[in-house]
Amino acid sequence: MKKIFLIFNFTFLILNCLYCEHFIQAGVFRYKEEAVNQQLYLASRNYPVMLNINGHYRIIVGPYEDKETADFTVLKLLSDENISAGLINETDAEKITESSGVQEVEISDEVLGELVNVAFDFLGVSYKYGGMDVEKGIDCSYFMQKVYKSLGTVLPRTSRLQFKIGKEIKRDELIPGDLVFFRKYIRSSRIGHVGMYIGNDEFIHASYGAKKVTISSLNETYFRKRFSGARRPL
């Protein structure tokens, strides 16, 4: 019995490690302007970065799916950017994934319109699983990453990690530019797809089914049954 318990416990620890995210603290500032400058600089260098407010203004880099990548990024921040950084402990990381204290920024209709227009420029681009080349094909999460980068916002690479950042939004609170997420299977809780809301219950996405970037309705049976929630990264 003891042997069985030990095997179960070891398996649980492995699974828990596989599905955790790792965040890096890359600066703490007293003044908002200094923090925003650091955030914009790291975003321009293609780091997935956000501003967290918890007494002070903290620069958070991540999330990363594995600790090795996070550790490497800590070293890279020091060697390439001369920024002293460190991994955030699990308790603090859980608060970040729940969006506790993440800054909410007032975004103008003009900026949101620009974001949607950038997304529309991709209509018809071929879909390819794992694709990151507009000429050869892109997948859903890279599409969102590419669109948001036009505004200087760097999103994580996968839809599952994109679901962990920003402000959680209810469906009746959606505005153009919000990210909408879906499960691959109805009975699963694992995120498998992402698109961008454009208004009138419609969203634009790189669709596996259509094999291209297209516009669909949240009310379509397939998406209605698999809708998992929405996030506002900006």
Name its key features.
single chain, endopeptidase fold (from Nostoc punctiforme), alpha+beta, 234 residues, Alpha-Beta Plaits, 8 helices, 4-stranded antiparallel sheet, 6-stranded antiparallel sheet
Topology of this protein?
Blueprint: H1 2-18, E1 22-29, H2 32-44, E2 49-54, E3 56-64, H3 67-81, E4 86-87, H4 90-97, H5 109-120, E5 132-133, E6 137-138, H6 140-149, H7 159-162, E7 167-169, E8 179-183, E9 191-199, E10 202-207, E11 212-217, H8 221-226, E12 227-232
Antiparallel strand pairs: 1-3, 1-4, 2-3, 5-6, 7-12, 8-9, 8-12, 9-10, 10-11
Describe, in plain words, how this protein is organized in 3D.
With about 230 residues, the chain is α+β, with helices and mostly antiparallel strands. It folds into two domains: about 20-95, Sporulation related repeat (Alpha-Beta Plaits), CATH 3.30.70; about 110-230, endopeptidase fold (from Nostoc punctiforme) (Alpha-Beta Complex). It contains eight helices and twelve strands. The protein has helices at about 1-20, 30-45, 65-80, 90-95, 110-120, 140-150, 160, 220-225; strands at about 20-30, 50-55, 55-65, 85, 130-135, 135-140, 165-170, 180-185, 190-200, 200-205, 210-215, 225-230. The strands form three sheets. It has a six-stranded antiparallel beta sheet with strand order 7-12-8-9-10-11. A four-stranded antiparallel beta sheet has the order 2-3-1-4, with helices on both faces. A two-stranded antiparallel sheet has the order 5-6. Strand 10 and strand 11 form a beta hairpin. Helix 5 (about 110-120) packs across helix 6 (about 140-150). It is globular. The N and C termini lie far apart (about 50 Å). The model is unreliable at about 1-20 and about 100-105 (pLDDT under 50).
